[in-house]
Design brief:
The protein has 290 residues and is α+β, with helices and mostly antiparallel strands. Helix content is 34%, strand content 23%. Strand 6 (115-123) and strand 7 (128-133) form a beta hairpin. It binds D-MYO-inositol-1-phosphate and calcium ion (CA). Calcium ion (CA) binds at residues 46, 69, 89, 91-92, 94. Residues 46, 69, 89, 91-92, 94 line the site of calcium ion.
Amino acid sequence: MSDWTDCLDFGISIAKQASETVLEAFLLQKEVQLKSSPADLVTETDQRVERILISAIRARFPLHRFIGEESVAAGEPCVLTDEPTWIIDPIDGTVNFVHRFPFVAISIAFTVNKQTEFGIVYSCVEDKLFHAQRGRGAFLNGEKLQASGQEDVSKCVVVTEIGAERDDLALSTMTSNILRLLQLPVHGVRALGTAAVDMCQVATGGADAYYHIGMHCWDIAASAIIVQEAGGVVMDTDGSDFDMMSRRVIAASSTSVANSIAQVVQAFPCRRDDEDPTRCVCGAAGVKGV
Ligand code: IPD
Ligand code: CA
């Protein structure tokens, strides 16, 4: 099973099955709870879909590990090891889901030795299934994907999000970054409300770039390999190598477009996804972790 195709096929089949739970609830009134901010939402369906996915995978692959958005929210560790690991966002675009804005996705990535072997993004309402396997290309509903190849940032459509952070520094950084992008200039800035689906637009060539700060590994791990396998590039917003735990990403049609975006966007401090939450990040001596 060295190419992990059986895991990919299984992941696709359970993503489709779990989407039925998302679609059944999509038009209904939801009970909403807040997590880290007033814009970081969770519903019973997020939690249920994650349970469905993890229990199905565990029954088939009992030794595999998991990083799931709602499991981490419930206190599970968010640590990527060399073991085969499924990185799961049961609903990417929970704000969309709550409001019935029709872009919500199940996002599943699979890593071995910390390298992503495949990614699956199922945009449930659109019935669009994106997937990519390392070295084997990226596909949308079985059709091969190709990023635009655009090299000139002034001819780009750039997708981004304000994100869920609502403190002053995050908000001012994200809004001023949109101004900086528009001043490059770019042809347009777009936002669909789900990092996974946003990033897949770069893989289709419908958008030329995506950048975001503050999202989590489960939002982007699957779509990163989909962009790469479609011929695009992913990097950190500081121009360094992509790191799914850093909470910063640029995905682009070409290295030159990614570099142009890296030169103008600014970051605000975010705790890494894999950072020990008991560790102090404020830099002030003697202050315990936040
Ligand atoms: C969010 C979405 C959103 C992005 C946020 C994410 P969630 O994920 O991907 O587009 O801007 O940063 O947290 O909470 O809907 O899974
Ligand atoms: Ca989610």
